[in-house]
Amino acid sequence: MKKIYTLLSILLLTVILTACGTSTTTEKQDSNTQETENTEVTTSPEVTENSEVDTTQAASPEKELEGTSTESDSNNYSITVLEGYELTAEEPNKDLLFNQENDLQSMRIETFSPEEITLEEIQENIMASLQASNESSTVTEITDDNMIPTHDSIKNVSAHQIDTTDGKVSGYVFERDGLLVKLTVFDTAATPALEKFVQMAETIKSK
After folding, report:
1. Confidence (pLDDT) at 61
2. Residue pair 180/154 in contact by the 8 Å Cβ criterion
3. Where does 44-203 show beta strands of DSSP type E?
4. How far apart (Å, rounded) are the C-alpha atoms in residues 76 and 97?
5. Which of 119, 123, 73 is nearest to 94 (CA)?
6. pLDDT tens digits for 132-151?
7. What is the pLDDT of residue 92?
8. Which of 47, 94, 162, 172 makes the best surface tag, with the fewest CB within 10 Å?
9. Residue 77 — φ and ψ, nearest 5°?
10. Exposed/middle/buried for 183, CB within 10 Å: 0-12, 13-18, 19+?
């Protein structure tokens, strides 16, 4: 009889311990599941927010130059002219864009078609013109990106300059949509305006 009671006690203890172990395991699983859900809820808004920021940045448009779109009277191009500057015809096939407050600062604009002349010939001509501005100085290449016309449709850019007694004379040659462009910029040492001329030069395009 005692043996029967002893066996029954052992079986009862085994059932109780098994039930406790199952309950503990279930509680741990439920706890882990809840933590996982909380983590997903917490991180999800951050991912969404970052995605929206990246999309906004990618869609932001390029800033356009604020000025007046002006067509040349005698040449086949247009240009955006900043306030305080004026475009005028200098002589046949040549225009002059100058600073109204300081006419010593100006940019001579010449445009050609590929049938008239090659880009290499224009390059040779501009280099000779720069050297003639000061025979005792040396023509150097412009390497500052802010001083070189850039645009998706501008290619084959050549940029050089030379020091003179009054300031710098810079020469540019480039091609844009079949238009060959030659620019000669005269700038002064005091309050130079070359960067503004370059910004306007970037807007030159065929009519």
Report:
1. 43
2. no
3. 68-71, 78-81, 85-91, 94-99, 102-112, 140-141, 154-163, 167-176, 179-188
4. 15
5. 73
6. 999 999 999 999 999 999 99
7. 86
8. 47
9. -155, 165
10. buried
